[in-house]
Amino acid sequence: METKLGTDDKLKEIVRQKYSEIALQDKEDNQASCCGAGGCSTEVYNIMTDDYTNLNGYTADADLGLGCGLPTQFAKIKQGDTVIDLGSGAGNDCFVARAEAGDTGKVIGIDFTPAMIAKARTNAEKLGYNNVEFRQGDIESMPVTSNVADVVVSNCVLNLVPNKNGVLKEIYRVLKPGAHFSISDVVLVGELPDALRKDAEMYAGCVSGAIQKKDYLDLIAVNGFVNVSIQKEKPIIIPDDILTNYLNETDLKSFKNGATGIYSITVYAEKPLGGNVCAGPECC
């Protein structure tokens, strides 16, 4: 019988391999698919992504069209802040964060895909930024010391991680007391059809790895965060020409007429001022 650890490792390797491929894809291909994975849609161009182009710091070469929100727009980053971006990809959110944090701030991008780290470092070098760095590592065990970040951001990444609770523990650890996060992610209301939920490619495509919205918010609270709020929410409509790769006609009709919803949410939460490295019985 396969252990959960074994299953988690397999899922993470699927994501690593897929995002190594995605690093070499065109932005247009990524935007017309689910987070860059799965087949591209001819019905809809932007399935999940929001438009970054008007944000200060936007860098076209670093925009792979993989996000599902604009967390940096809501992150309340101030001059001089230390910002950590989880699943930093080619670096776009880091460069937007740097525009807010300024020359006196520091931005650290963390990604576990070597191809993404290489792409991000190349982009940072081209831009001449000496206060933006990219570290290869697992966001369940961040290569960062405790109580160092003023802000943590992430764009459509936690849903790719099997152990979401472990990531939230790490976010709590690296944030300074009183500091906060702003994270965009994909969540569900209702159950996905088995064919979507079990498909490995749709896991890498940000959909089958998503959990229930209530469970997601509960995990944040259980890990000791306070002042939790949803900054933005929008439905995600997966086009028929992608869904038909996984669902037959009957299942597709049932899914579209059912109560299941797929949403992008941007969530804000704070580490309490008196917060130490860990809080709550589930966090220690």
From TrEMBL:
Outline the extent of the Methyltransferase domain: 78-221
Keyword set includes Methyltransferase: yes
Q: What class of enzyme is it?
A: transferase
Q: What is its EC number?
A: 2.1.1.137
Q: Does the keyword S-adenosyl-L-methionine apply?
A: yes
- InterPro entries, per database record: Arsenite_MeTrfase-like (IPR026669), Methyltranfer_dom (IPR025714), SAM-dependent_MTases_sf (IPR029063)
Catalytic activity field: arsenic triglutathione + 2 [thioredoxin]-dithiol + 2 S-adenosyl-L-methionine + H2O = dimethylarsinous acid + 2 [thioredoxin]-disulfide + 3 glutathione + 2 S-adenosyl-L-homocysteine + 2 H(+); arsenic triglutathione + [thioredoxin]-dithiol + S-adenosyl-L-methionine + 2 H2O = methylarsonous acid + [thioredoxin]-disulfide + 3 glutathione + S-adenosyl-L-homocysteine + H(+); arsenic triglutathione + 3 [thioredoxin]-dithiol + 3 S-adenosyl-L-methionine = trimethylarsine + 3 [thioredoxin]-disulfide + 3 glutathione + 3 S-adenosyl-L-homocysteine + 3 H(+)
What are the record keywords, sorted? Answer: Methyltransferase, S-adenosyl-L-methionine, Transferase
Q: Which residues form a coiled coil?
A: none
Tell me the GO BP annotations in alphabetical order. methylation
Please name the CDD domains in this protein's record: AdoMet_MTases
Q: Name one GO molecular function term.
A: arsenite methyltransferase activity
Q: Which family does it belong to?
A: Belongs to the methyltransferase superfamily. Arsenite methyltransferase family.
**In its UniProt entry, what is this protein called?**
Arsenite methyltransferase
Species source reads Mucilaginibacter pallidiroseus
Its gene?
Answer: arsM
